[in-house]
Amino acid sequence: MATAIQPDRGRLFYLMGPSGAGKDSLLDACRGQDVSGRRLRIAPRHITRRAGSVGEDHIALTPAAFRVQMDNGDFALHWHANGRRYGISIAVDEWLANGDPVLVNGSRAHLDEALAKYGDRLVPILVCVDLHRQRQRLLDRGRESADEIDARIERSRRLQARLEHRFATINNDGSLTHATRQLLAIIDHHLTGKV
Question: Distance (Å, rounded) from C-alpha 47 to C-alpha 35?
Answer without folding.
Answer: 28
